[in-house]
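FIELD: query
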Amino acid sequence: MQISQALNEGAPAASPQVARQSLLGMSFDEVEAAVTALGLPRFRARQLWRRIWRHGQTDFGDMTELGKDARAALAQAFHADRPMITSRQNSTDGTIKWLIRCHDGQEAEMVYIPEEDRGTLCISSQIGCTLTCSFCHTGTQRLVRNLTAAEICGQVLLAMDELGDWPAGKAERRLTNIVLMGMGEPLFNYEEVKKALLLIMWGEGLGLSKRRVTLSTSGIVPEIERCGAELGVNLAISLHAVRDDLRDVLVPINRKYNIKELVDCVRRYPVLSNARRVTWEYVMIKGVNDSPEDAKALVKLIRGIPSKINLIPFNPWPGTDYECSSDAAIDAFAKIVMKAGYASPVRTPRGRDILAACGQLKSESVRLRKSQMVAQAQAETSTL
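FIELD: result
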């Protein structure tokens, strides 16, 4: 018998064999349909929604306005659980990095970066990555699976728990901006990312303005066009090279969507203006892409597009052959770009003392688990 048949408000609880479903990835309409399918009054959906999205509650027992019978019914069918924190590391510069574990034991990362005028949460959209960008540590890890909308939303809600940011929308909140720059390519998981962002940006959700949400992509041209039309969030492009032969190596998706296709697509991105510029991410790698000629070619490439250029000193990770450009090379590059009229901030490396390069914390966790399994196997063999 289905729950919808068995439960009315005040009716017996659902069968324990029925797996509970996460509410975090559901739209309000889906929550309303699920609540009424339990036989509960429609107004309970609004109460439930506010408890979860405006007050951050996870325990139905604490949602006293719903009524005892409604709480019991909901607790049998649903949950609002966050991913589990398996590691939290605090940097001396205030950066916080979490390794989180999903229901199937797979792990992803998220990072909180505090600044004077904002607090930015960097979240993941996939476990691992399929892009194999040669300078990126996550690119060394195979793609395991996409994260669900519930798991993407769960990262944001978990960070708000950790930062004490409830109720949502309070003036002194610490989390003000979200960037999809963690593990994975967001546009290869577009439908789940879209669903999660619509929930996060909805006024009855977390109410975060689309101006405070930035999606970073390596250049999946068809999905960039969809993102502009359907979400209208800020756009960041992982460019990193101004020649196709070099970008083919650094960002291999370039072999499918080359620089010209990518730049032409960005020119058409609907929300671009002097107030909302595209960010071109450019990691500075010694002797690879950091010459004055590269800087001049970059300026020429993006001419006419409302832009800012984010120069990112390469953050070395174990096993890489790349090195960070010298301070002098970065400064010379930035001066050329700024002279052409583009804002060109040099991103201050954050959290280097806590493995803050994307993917490092997960790799360390996987390595540790493997070493533990090997040690256990050796111990078991020695007792035979």
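FIELD: remark
Confidence is low (pLDDT under 50) at residues 1-17, 370-377.
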